[in-house]
Amino acid sequence: MRTDLETVQNELNNWWHFGPQDKMLTSAKALKENHPPLPDTDDLERYWTDVDFILQRTMQVIDHSDYYGVSVPFHYVDFSAVAMPCALGGRIEYVNKDTIWSHPVCSDLEEILELKLTEENVAYKAQIEAMRRSVKRAKNHHYVSPWSLGGILDTISGLYGAENLLMDLILRPDLVKKVVNYLTALWLEEFRHITELIGTSGNQGHVCGWVGIWAPGTTFPIQEDFAYMISPDMFKEFCLPSIRQMIEAMDYPLFHLDGQGMLPHLDMLLEIEELKAIQWQPGAGKERLDQWYPVIQKILAAGKSCQVFAEAAEIDDLERNVGHQGMLAILRNAN
After folding, report:
1. What are phi and psi of 272, to 5 degrees?
2. Based on the structure, what is the number of domains in the chain?
3. Is residue 326 in a domain?
4. Residue 323: is it exposed, middle or buried by C-beta count within 10 angstroms (0-12/13-18/19+)?
């Protein structure tokens, strides 16, 4: 664990609480130039599910990386963005070393009400076993962050199909809400389970999912990427209740706002007092930050901290235009 961890924790504790800052916080990590070859395999199923391989590779990455700004060593137990539908039985396609797809397996929405998380499922077993074993190695070495529990409508889409879900939002809204409530309860139970597991590591605080931001208490990057396809009225009806429950279940909630299509829902999120931070991720091809200063300023004006991804060359201009209080930039392309 890095030697200046207490300073990092103090700065991030202040950021989560939207406290006064004398500079914009930055975070970056990079593999050392002369790092030894990392364990690798062309067998994609092994790459994603072999826990021995996953831990060996992850520990080498942690041990041979440099950490800058407020970054901390952490292990995000990765099963791509479709981790939850895969863990509930979605048909898995290992696309490459960055991506997995979940293909729908439910022909009717009601079938989702019968699904459970079980270690008989290869995706769930790989993730929870990797977490258990990583937690045992974590004290004074690294943090373990939760696997990707995902958004509720995202999960339904991965199990049932996006077009089918869009139709049922209109034709069978009561059934959609029943499934949303079922999956929200499952989400909350699993979040309690894994945060209790992480709490046994002996390390102080938690790390916010794949984002990697340390927090003084429980945290997670809440998302609902499917919502870019629905109206604010539908977002309020079908998404906001479960999002509020997730926010209430943790100490330091962050919302992953992904793409322009999510901006119509931003005002509703900013009205949630307990929501600590917004991550603004504009989407592929729209990453240049100077076109998004008004969005960032709006988040900050609501008293929410804001995390963005940035090139090093963008930092000075970003700070001149939006200030530094509440700002955290994670640097892209640190390697």
Report:
1. -85, 110
2. 1
3. no
4. middle
Calpha distance 78→127 (Å, rounded): 7
pLDDT of 38-61, one tens digit each?
A: 999 999 999 999 999 999 999 999
Q: How many Å apart are CA 277 and CA 181, to the nearest integer? A: 25
Strands 252-258 and 277-281: parallel
Q: Is residue 161 part of a domain?
A: yes
Percent of the chain whose pLDDT exceeds 70: 99
Cβ count near 282 (within 10 Å) = 20
Q: Residue 284's pLDDT is what? A: 85
What Å distances lie between residue 333 and 49, 102, 209, CA to CA? 27, 28, 20
Are the C-beta atoms of 281 and 228 separated by less than 8 Å? no
Q: Hey, what are 267's tokens?
A: 């005002």
Share of the chain above pLDDT 90, in %: 96
Q: Which domain holds residue 19?
A: 5-254+263-271
Contact indicator for 326, 306 with CB cutoff of 8 Å: yes
Which sign does the torsion angle of CA 209, 198, 184, 96 carry?
A: positive
Establish if 325 belongs to a structural domain.
no
Nearest-CA neighbor of 251 among 13, 69, 72, 26?
13
- Note whether residue 294 is domain-resident: no
What backbone phi and psi angles, to 5 degrees, belong to 215?
-135, 155
Asked if pLDDT for residue 278 goes beyond 80, the answer is yes
Secondary structure letter of residue 110 according to DSSP: G
Cβ 200 vs Cβ 68: under 8 Å: no
Long-range contacts of 289-294 (CB under 8 A, 24+ apart): 289/314, 289/318, 290/314, 290/317, 290/318, 290/321, 293/318, 293/321, 293/322
Please tell me the pTM assigned to this model.
0.96
| pLDDT tens, residue by residue, 300-319 | 999 999 999 999 999 999 99
- Is 113 in contact with 178 (CB distance < 8 Å)? yes
| Dihedral sign, Cα of residue 101, residue 224, residue 135, residue 132 | negative
Q: Are residues 89 and 159 in contact, defined by beta-carbon separation less than 8 angstroms? A: yes
Cα–Cα dist 335/32, whole Å: 8
**Which phi and psi (to 5°) does residue 127 adopt?**
-75, -45
